[in-house]
Amino acid sequence: MIDLQKGYRIIDLSQEIRPDLLELNGDYTWGTNVRRFTLRQFMAKHDQMIMHFVETETHIGTHVELPRHLRKDGRSAAEMPLESFFGEALVLNFDFLGPKEGKGQPVTPSHLERVREGDIVLMWSRYKGDERPYIAPETARRLVARRIKMLGVTWDMSVNLEDPRSYDPGFADAWATHKSLLGNEIPIVENLDHLEEVAKERVFFIGLPLRVVDLESSWIRAIALEPLD
Asked: Which phi and psi angles does 126 have, rounded to 5°?
């Protein structure tokens, strides 16, 4: 357990969202998101305070995907235990796993030697696009066997959750990471940011979803608590 008497540096791992905004006076400001995220202001009748309607999707910004995303009978945001979303985290930097001939290389089970049972595993690299390392199907299954608590990857998927062949028709292990982890009630966090600011390999991670019934994915405010000593 975390010792609250100990000194920690708080690192915000959440992606900032700049939504489209429709103001009370009719002015409209475009945001910076590729996917729709719109705030519409209105005045509450009973107290004349400004409020907002929100029109968006659940898979935007820093969010956690839950078993309900995989199957209709999977647990949703309101049903997963809170303990699933915080705990000791292992931060794995895959900058050393450079591309070959412009193609990303697999994260293999051999790269998981420092993963412990109950860990939250956070992966990142500085590679983008086709050069990103990717989680091989057998690695996803090894993470399940290690009984990790949650998996997280950085913004723009700088470690690709899936084997790129998942887009090819007939690939037997398509979407293995989502199927393996969510099928075993291990949440997946996407679009983490600022993991490069974490200096230590082990931190305390917190990323709590909204308690909404039937919600298959939820925005989170993800933070790392890094020990100062």
From this structure: -95, 5
Cα 121 from Cα 139, distance rounded (Å): 12
Q: Give the mean pLDDT per block of 10 residues along the chain (229 residues).
A: 74 96 96 92 93 95 97 96 97 97 97 98 96 98 98 91 95 97 98 96 97 97 94
Phi and psi (nearest 5°) for 109? Answer: -55, -25
Nearest residue to 134 (alpha-carbon basis) of 169, 82, 171: 171
Query: Cα(205)–Cα(177) distance, rounded to whole angstroms?
Result: 21
Homologous superfamily, domain 63-227? Putative cyclase (3.50.30.50)
State the CB neighbour count (10 A cutoff) for residue 65: 23
The pTM of the full predicted model, rounded to 2 decimals, is 0.94
The C-alpha atoms of residue 170 and residue 164 are separated, in whole angstroms, by: 13
What stretch(es) of the chain map to CATH 3.50.30.50?
63-227
